[in-house]
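Slide 14.
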Amino acid sequence: MKLYEIPEEYRKVLEGVQVDEETGEILGTDALVEFAGDLNETIKNTGLYLFELDSEAQQIDAQIKRLKARKDGMKRRADTLKNLMLDAMTSSGLKKVSDPLVTVYLRKSTATIVDEMDILPKDLIRVKVETSPDLIAIGKKLKAGEVVPGAHLEERQNVNIK
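Slide 15: predicted structure.
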């Protein structure tokens, strides 16, 4: 989507920077580096192009959210229809309905239901433990001058686009 007037020569070079879906390798950066344009103009146009990419990503997120809601609705509808069929078949005593296009039948199954997890034997409970560093607490200690073994602060440069 073109939101900004970016000169075509810049746009072609910027659109040439791609990510290989299979390997994750970034392709086309050489052409951008070799592009013989004014550095200020190149950075400005790259910033505008980044706005466009961000806008597209937001639109894709909105579509994913919309499609997920639609998918969830279809699953709920399918579950409701299955339950209605189950009720109709069990109340009428039908075990099987067969047609050249579809066969619907009842089959028995078992499900394990836990009524009270607190009284289950310990050997029947799985415990999931996830450990991760508390970066905020570590950062506070380091900024306060404390030594934290295994961690350090690192100065970085970041690109901000407004």
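Speaker note: Helices lie at 8-15, 29-34, 39-92, 135-143.
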